[in-house]
Amino acid sequence: MTVRTEDPQRALRDSLGMFATGITVVTVRSPSGKPFGLTVNSFNSVSLEPPLIVWSLATHLASVNAFADCEYYAINVLAEDQQHLSQRFATRDIDKFAGLELREGLGGAPLLDGCCAWFECRNTLRHDGGDHVMFVSEVVRHTHEAKAPLIYFGGRYRSLAPGV
Ligand SMILES: Cc1cc2nc3c(=O)[nH]c(=O)nc-3n(C[C@H](O)[C@H](O)[C@H](O)COP(=O)(O)O)c2cc1C
Fold this sequence. Notes:
There is one protein chain. The protein has about 160 residues and is mainly beta. The chain has one domain (about 20-150): Electron Transport, Fmn-binding Protein, Chain A (Pnp Oxidase, Chain A, Roll), CATH 2.30.110.10. The chain contains three helices and twelve strands, in the order αβββββαβαββββββ. It has helices at about 10-15, 65-70, 85-90; strands at about 20, 25-30, 35-40, 45, 50-60, 70-75, 100-105, 110, 115-130, 130-145, 150-155, 155-160. The strands form three sheets. It has a seven-stranded antiparallel sheet. A three-stranded antiparallel sheet has the order 1-11-12, with no helix packed on it. A hairpin with a 2-residue loop joins β9 and β10 (about 130-145). The protein is globular and about 50 Å long.
């Protein structure tokens, strides 16, 4: 069934929402020591050799300069039981890191406890992409846990079906 809507941006969002993704929290530490992080589902792989990943950041966000200027940042892939972290890191004007168990990654980027994978990335290349800037970055270190990931589809959080 084709669903039609009058609002072209809403229609584009709805079509894009049919592409199921995981959810990540991308983190960085500014030169002054302040941590930044946001929920991101535009993450994807680009290349194995060299190891490159991509994600995009809305240019109006306050963390743009911290990410653009850093040498390293981290991508925390959320596990199924971390929906609260996705919501927290998509909320403006709160202390997103308050009370969290953290480790320090390269460049001091915060690594969140309990995730299913972590990628520590060198800030290699950036490309303008409309109202976003795309980061194409080299994976310097990575690790993962045997945990089910948090899924995002149709604008809602989902779990993998049991046994999948
Ligand atoms: C599921 C989900 C995925 C998101 N993906 C992105 C993304 O890929 N890029 C982006 O710039 N913002 C994305 N956002 C929005 C940011 O997380 C949100 O604007 C956040 O408040 C930004 O942090 P700030 O307000 O502290 O600047 C996403 C939000 C959600 C809930």
